[in-house]
Amino acid sequence: MIRSQFLALFSCLLLFVASPVSGSVTVSSGTGSAVSSVDRMATFDSMTFFGSHDVGSYTEGGLYIQTPSSWQNFPLLGGGIWYPNAGYNGGNSFEENLALIGNTDGARMFGVEFYAINAGPAAWDTFIWETYRDGSLTDSGTFVATVVDETVIGFADAAGIDELRVGFFNSTSGFVNPIGIDNLRVQNTAIPEPSSLLVVIGLAAGACCRRRAR
User: Fold this and answer.
1) Of 109, 113, 178, 188, which shows the fewest CB atoms inside 10 Å?
2) Beta strands 151-161; 126-133: pairing state
């Protein structure tokens, strides 16, 4: 019986050793796919009419959700959604239209989720994202997103990130359109590293073996 438990434990050890957390960003979809414990949240419920906020300096719930340039918010889908009045008004560049997401106190984010809303036409067919740590780009990517309406997108990084930048762009023209964001959820608690998990498994297995030997 103890031999069977040892083989099962060894299989678990192989699983964790063969699947280390690399620190690279994992992109997912669905609530809870990247954030298992919500530490901070922004709902944007106060964005109910045009110009009620400057999205270039917006903060809520210990989070900043901003554009590099000063833009008024636009009441997308009736309001209550973070959305800059840009894109079609001369803001056709990554510098002006990517949404910047982070903690106001500079704390690392290990998981980020939000409802992503594409208010542009079908031509704005690509979602772009970038992650930063200590001011340096750590990862980036794109994926096809012709129609994204109230879809939860998640980003997780076991090493943590300081800032996430997201937006939509037209793959043909290269122009950028701002993204609509709702119910932003952030996890600031680190994901356990494989070594920590191995210690927990070893302690549990040792206790189990001692009980069986009595």
Assistant:
1) 188
2) unpaired
Distance CA 37, CA 29 (A): 16
User: What does the alpha-carbon distance between residue 196 and residue 60 come to, in Å, rounded to a whole number?
Assistant: 33
- Integer Cα distance of 87 and 65 in angstroms: 17
Q: pLDDT tens for residues 133-146?
A: 999 999 999 888 75
Least confident of 31-35, 77-81, 107-111, 163-167: 77-81
Residues 6+ apart with CB under 8 A from 95: 68, 69
Residues 178, 88: Cα–Cα separation, whole Å: 9
Ramachandran region of residue 136, left (φ > 0), alpha (ψ -120 to 50) or beta? beta
- Residue 56 identity (one-letter amino acid): G
The model carries a pTM of: 0.76
Give the amino acid at 179: I
Provide, rounded to the nearest whole percent, the portion of the chain with pLDDT above 90.
Answer: 40
**Residue whose token pair is 């959305």:** 83
Give the C-alpha distances (Å, rounded to integers) separating 123 from 51, 118, 146: 27, 11, 7
What is the helix, strand, coil percentage profile of the chain, to 5?
A: 20, 35, 45
CA dist., res. 125 & res. 131, Å (int): 21
The answer, yes or no, to whether residue 127 has pLDDT greater than 90, is no
Residues 6 or more apart whose Cβ sits within 8 Å of residue 106: 162
